[in-house]
Every structure is written in C-alpha cells, then in structure tokens.
Amino acid sequence: MPSTVKTEVLYQTANDARHPATNMIDGDEKTFWITTGMYPHEVLLGFKGATATVTKIRTWSYHIKKLTVEKCTEAQPTKFEKIVETELSDKAGAMQIESFTINSTMGPDVKYLKIHVASGWEDFSSIHSIIVEGDTVEAS
C-alpha cells in the first residue's frame, strides 16, 4: 500500500527567509513557500538519496495558474520528463486543493521531482503543502 514519500528541498528559484520552500513539505498547511514576483518558478525535490515509485501527488496552493511536475530518474537532476501538466482554476482567494494520480508507467524509479509554476492568477502564488505518495526504495 502506498504511503507518503519523504522529500527534501534541494533547490528553489524564489527565496524568502520568512516563507522558505521547506515550508511546503513540513506537513503544516499554515506555512508556505511563496514566489517572488516574475514567473516561472521552480522547486527541486529529492527523496533523501532513495528512489521512489510515485503514485499520486497532492498540492495545496493559492493563485497558481499553470503547474507542471517533472520527474528525473538519473543519478543527477539533469534530464526531466513531464508527469503532470495542468491549468488550475482561479479560486478567488480560496485554496487550490489538487490531487494528481500518476500513470503506473511514469511513476517508477524517480530520484527527483521538479515543481514548475509557469504562471499565476496573481503576481505572487504560494504552495502550502505538497504530498508525494508511493513507495520508496532505499539506495544501496
């Protein structure tokens, strides 16, 4: 049975000391990572040296218009393939709660995920939580 896969933030394009990217993986929807104006923005997630079979990705956000999630199965995060590409509805100030089921052929052997916020409904957008579901295989 799939469970929550532990992630770590390896890189982010927007950095606000009050709202770091680590907030989106801390399990608290009251904390968040915020973009800093001009789009696009990206966050690179790793699995703490492990490989994951990703089955679902859930997001809680505000003001994101176009969102892409890409996977990398290489040892270094250099070659990515889209596994989610969507345009989110403008919720007029309400939280955007989304769940993306990952095709079984796209989910195995993932070492990195890149969260790409291409555009927003406002000048700034935020991700309050991202949960990756699946199974982890520890690196040997």
Structure description:
The protein has strands at 3-4, 8-12, 33-34, 41-46, 51-62, 64-72, 81-87, 96-101, 112-120, 126-137. The chain has a single domain (3-137), classed as Galactose-binding domain-like (Jelly Rolls, Sandwich). The protein contains no helices and 10 strands. A hairpin with an 8-residue loop joins strand 6 (64-72) and strand 7. The two termini are 22 Å apart. The chain has 140 residues and is mainly beta.
Biggest beta sheet summary: 5 strands, antiparallel
Mean pLDDT: 92
What is the succession of H and E elements? EEEEEEEEEE
Number of domains: 1
Residue share in β-strands? over 45%
CATH fold assignment: Jelly Rolls
How helical, in percent, are the residues?
A: under 10%
CATH class: Mainly Beta
The CA-CA distance between the termini, in Å, is: 22 Å
Q: Structural class, judged by helices and strands?
A: mainly beta
Number of strands: 10
Which stretches are low in confidence, meaning pLDDT under 50 for 5 or more residues running? none
CATH homology-level superfamily:
Galactose-binding domain-like
Oligomer: single chain
- Specify Rg, calculated over alpha carbons: 14 Å
Can you name the CATH architecture?
Sandwich
GO cellular component, one term: cilium
Protein name: F5/8 type C domain-containing protein
InterPro entries: Galactose-bd-like_sf (IPR008979), IFT25 (IPR033558)
Features:
140 residues, mainly beta, Jelly Rolls, 5-stranded antiparallel sheet, 10 strands
